[in-house]
Amino acid sequence: MAAIKELIRTEADGSLSFGDYELDKKTKLADFNHEGNLYKVKTFREITKLERNEMFVYESVPGTAVQNFQVSGDGVEFQVEGPEDAQITIGLENDVEYVVLVDGVSTGTVKTNLGGKLPLSVELGAKELVSVKITKA
């Protein structure tokens, strides 16, 4: 699939897809309206970042393309791809334990910090899409 050429889009199921790790220069798109929220995406080969209403949602180093990003009351679920392994940080609830599944395999539980950020590593590169599911423990 490679990258999301529109930088960010709404999918038929109501989820979001965003990011273009093939860009050489940082590119951003602001004020994307989705379900009454304003999203801002910044993306290129070195980083992909998503904000909702000026609050942190997602960041990857290096840049990635994310498909079917859905947030629920219990966590978040999405598929991600990129040219190499990525460090991903997700914005969730403060000081809560979450179970992280990567391609259906548990990587354990992680507790968010007081800022609600949850870090994880995802092995990419040779795989087309890697599924990530994060739910409250």
Describe the structure.
There is one protein chain. The protein has 137 residues and is mostly beta strands. It has a single domain (8-136), classed as Immunoglobulin-like, CATH 2.60.40. Helices cover 0% and strands 60% of the residues. It contains no helices and 13 strands. A 7-stranded antiparallel sheet has the order 1-2-7-8-13-10-11, with no helix packed on it. It has a 6-stranded antiparallel sheet with strand order 3-4-5-6-9-12, with no helix packed on it. Strand 10 (97-102) and strand 11 (105-111) form a beta hairpin. The radius of gyration is 14 Å and the shape is globular. The relative contact order is 0.18. The mean pLDDT is 94.
Main sheet makeup: 7 strands, antiparallel
* Strand arrangement, major sheet: 1-2-7-8-13-10-11
Q: Provide the structure class.
A: mainly beta
User: How many DSSP helices?
Assistant: 0
Categorize the overall geometry: globular
Helix fraction by DSSP (H/I, runs of at least 4): under 10%
CATH topology: Immunoglobulin-like
CATH architecture grouping: Sandwich
Termini gap: 32 Å
Estimate the mean pLDDT confidence.
Answer: 94
The low-confidence parts are none
CATH C-level name: Mainly Beta
Number of domains: 1
Order of helices and strands: EEEEEEEEEEEEE
Please tally the β strands and state the result. Answer: 13
| Strand residue percentage | over 45%
Radius of gyration computed on alpha carbons? 14 Å
